[in-house]
Amino acid sequence: MLSPSYKPEDYPLLPDLPGVYRYYNKEGELIYVGKAKNLKKRVSSYFIKSSGINHKTRRMVKEIKKIEIAIVNSEFDALLLENNLIKKSQPKYNVLLKDDKTYPYLLLTKEHFPRIFPTRRVIPSKGTYFGPFASVRGMHNVLDLIRSLFNIRTCKLDLSPGKIATSKYKVCLEYHIGNCLGPCEGLQKEHDYLQDIEQAKNILKGNLAVAKSHFKEKMREAAEKLAFEEAQHYKEKLDLLEMYQAKSLVINPNVSSLDVFSIVSEEKFAFVNYLKIKNGAIILTKTVELKKKLDEPDAELLETALIHLRDQFQSDAREILVNTPLETAVEGLQITLPKIGDKKKLVDLSLKNALYYKKEKALASGENRDKKNRVLKQLQKDLSLLQLPDHIECFDNSNIQGANPVASMVCFMDGKPAKKEYRHYHIKTVTGPNDFASMEEVVGRRYKKLLEEAKPLPKLVVIDGGKGQLSSAVQALKNLGIYGQVPIIGIAKRLEEIYFPGDSYPLFIDKKSESLRLLQKIRDEAHRFAITFHRNVRSKNAFGTQLTSIPGIGENTAQKLLKAFKSVKKIREAKKEDLITVVGPDKAEKLWHAFHHS
Q: What are the residue boundaries of the GIY-YIG domain, all occurrences included (predicted)?
């Protein structure tokens, strides 16, 4: 264990051995995990080198207060340990592999007459899992093939010998249409059923050659017995299997299992594609996105993804093809960067997938950004605004015949709700149902506070209402001396007219316009926020009135009771001892008498 305050001469404490190092900050939080062929050289390089280290790494080094190391036997062991520690702790300066999907598996159950069915939950005690599959469609293609080739049951019956012997089960429709051979009535022996399961397992493992040999042998045996219908039956299954293989065949079927990885990188992200090959066919393809933290080189990123994906998709291939050399020699694996031939074509295909994924992500983020800017630019054009309205605030009042008057303000940043900036207002200076005066009060209060706190003013203020409410809001801005600095409009609900200060003629924006839909969305959100707040206030006041009508019970006491018991009904039902705990013996006695002796 070291401290970065150590001088260079202190680094002999570190061994010249492979291992993993962990950096912690002053709070004891793990912030980085790294691997090294030589711990002494690698760790000391962070603190001795003055050049060649990027600013992100320098920032991390400043946070390091404690270092821990773990010595391992080889560089590959260090790579595996590093991967496990990153996966477990997800330190903030390590590469983030963005892939939080729950993948589907096919489960071969551990029971009499095993079943095969899809699942996303992995419980090892249930049986053997095959996968995960990168797509649901790919999984169902394999499952459909197996069910076409073999008579695998789909029911959930307990087919233990004892249960079958009781003759409590009857064959179902699956038996009558030929998809099941009726093991529930003892019409199929478990030994025969398990032979089919063994062949299904070979297909699930990608070993199609074994399944093909099985059907060829069965076809030959049937032909020798002159059972030509049976032979034709096996030939059809063999044809089905070969058709399935032909669809996914990309190279010579004599090529054994191998994995193909390619990486394409940009400033902040990298994209790694993985092709899993069995007997010349692609049985899985997957692309993942890695978020860079310390400007990691492509070789390091590819190593991270390689270990993760091989572990996740349970690869046992001993040969790996890549498009960039790796820094770590991986024991027991042959890692090749092919230059020509079928293997080079596979790497090119993988790279094509990675580039497509990168392009797709860029288009998606660009479209979202363009759409947001397009709507705001259209709104800017429709309202003749000098600035893009990327900060909009909208006000609405709510009261019923002047009772419990409240108001709300909602805030939209970049065209989206910024809910942390939403505000509720109790009307303080207005008596009776006066929407105009209430609007002037809340607009004045909002922007007086922003000015006092030196916070930026919005690029557009929207008032829910027509000319009257707008005039009141304008007066509030004039009182603060900021009228003219903040664009302000009113939106009247009946015909969705847009009113400008001092203009008696409204603006009508095209009803199909995205800019009008944005204004409607903001207005409706302000209305919803105000109505919800008003409903809550009205409800609390109604409860409070029932309590404050009791002599000796004031508003503060009523609120204290409601906070403790949640409702008047529960206060009424409470024991006297519980009331005494909340409000004391004198007031508790008054409540008790009012509820139980009136």
A: 16-95
Stated pTM of the model = 0.43
Model confidence pLDDT, tens digit, residues 128-187: 887 666 567 767 777 877 887 888 888 989 998 888 888 888 888 888 888 888 999 889
- Residue 247: pLDDT band (50, 70, 90) is very low
Fold held by 391-537? Nucleotidyltransferase; domain 5 (3.30.420)
Closest CA relative to residue 419, chosen from 430, 408, 435: 408
- For 37, other C-beta atoms within 10 Å of its C-beta total 16
- Read off φ and ψ for residue 480, nearest 5 degrees: -90, -5
CATH 3.40.1440.10 fits 8-94, yes or no: yes
Same fold, 8-94 and 391-537: no
SS (H, E, C) 411-435: EEECCEECHHHCEEEECCCCCCCCH
The CB-side HSE value for 426 (13 A sphere, CA atoms) comes to 6
Sign of CA dihedral 184, 187, 191, 195: negative
| CATH code for the domain defined by 258-360 | 3.30.420
Residue with tokens 């095209």: 510
